Amino acid sequence: MHSFLYRANVLLSFAITILGVVCAIASFTDNFNNPTPHAQVKVLNINWFQKQPNGNDEVSMTLNISADLQSLFTWNTKQVFVFLAAEYETPKNAVNQISLWDGIIPSKEHAKFWTHTSNKYRFIDQGSNLRGKEFNLTMHWHIMPKTGKMIADKIVIPGYKLPAEYR
Ligand SMILES: *[C@@H]1O[C@H](CO)[C@@H](O)[C@H](O)[C@H]1NC(C)=O
Ligand SMILES: *[C@@H]1O[C@H](CO)[C@@H](O)[C@H](O)[C@H]1NC(C)=O
After folding, report:
1. 73: Cβ below 6 Å to ligand 2?
2. What pLDDT is stored for residue 4 in this prediction?
3. What are φ and ψ of residue 161, in 5° steps?
4. Ligand 2 atom having least distance to the Cα of 158
5. Closest residue by Cα to residue 57 from 134, 122, 118, 126
6. 5: part of which helix (H) or strand (E)?
7. Residue 39, class by beta-carbon neighbours within 10 Å (0-12 exposed, 13-18 middle, 19+ buried)?
8. Distance (Å, whole) CA 65 – CA 114
9. How far apart are CA 35 and CA 116, in angstroms?
10. What's the rounded Cα separation, in Å, for the pair 71 and 62?
11. Whose CA is nearest to atom 12 of ligand 2?
């Protein structure tokens, strides 16, 4: 009896060790994946741009977001969360980050896409800093693995500018 439990225990810890090793290899091999993702965003239209009664600036725009994130997928990838943010500087903050759009990519087959959309989340500045403001659009992603740690990275697309006047 004693020896049976002992053996079962040895077997179990052996199995757990193997499982641990397999998981470690799975997440380790992810380190060798050198992804080459691409993202492109065009501001197709400024739909409107105004100062709200409370003094904050808000802009609505139509975007064409296109990306090829297929290289982020390995056999250890469960899904990839992406979001597009506007990043700009104001006198108060070196970086203001406003999320405009996001999505979940469930598989490699869906990782090459384009979408024609107005900003899903409101682009509001706490203040009236947006007229003529230069900004970057950044495509951020979080790779959710089947095992191991989450990997996050981004592509910065610089060189956008808001109109000088409200409209
Ligand atoms: C959006 O961009 C993609 C890739 O650059 C292009 O194929 C597509 O025609 C564009 N769509 C619109 C509505 O501009
Ligand atoms: C925008 O991108 C440029 C070039 O990558 C960078 O120098 C600048 O700091 C960025 N601006 C913000 C507010 O992140």
Report:
1. no
2. 73
3. -145, 135
4. 2
5. 126
6. helix 2-30
7. buried
8. 5
9. 25
10. 27
11. 88
Strand pairing category for 134-145 and 123-125:
unpaired
- Residue 117 forms beta bridges with which residues? 63
Nearest CA, atom 14, ligand 1: 64
Task: Find the mean pLDDT for residues 68-74.
Answer: 96
- pTM confidence score: 0.83
In percent, the amount of the chain with pLDDT more than 90 equals 78
Q: Are 40 and 161 in contact (CB under 8 A)?
A: no
pLDDT at 18: 73
With beta carbons less than 8 A apart as the criterion, state whether 85 and 99 touch: yes
Q: 116 CB under 6 A from ligand 1?
A: yes
Whether the CB-CB separation of 147 and 93 falls below 8 Å is answered with no
Tokens coding 130: 């947006």
Report CA Rg, the chain: 23
At which residue do the structure tokens 């956008």 appear? 160
130 in Cβ contact with 162 (< 8 Å): yes
Determine the Cα–Cα distance for residues 98 and 104; give it in Å rounded to an integer: 18
Tell me: domain 35-161, CATH 1.10.10, correct? no
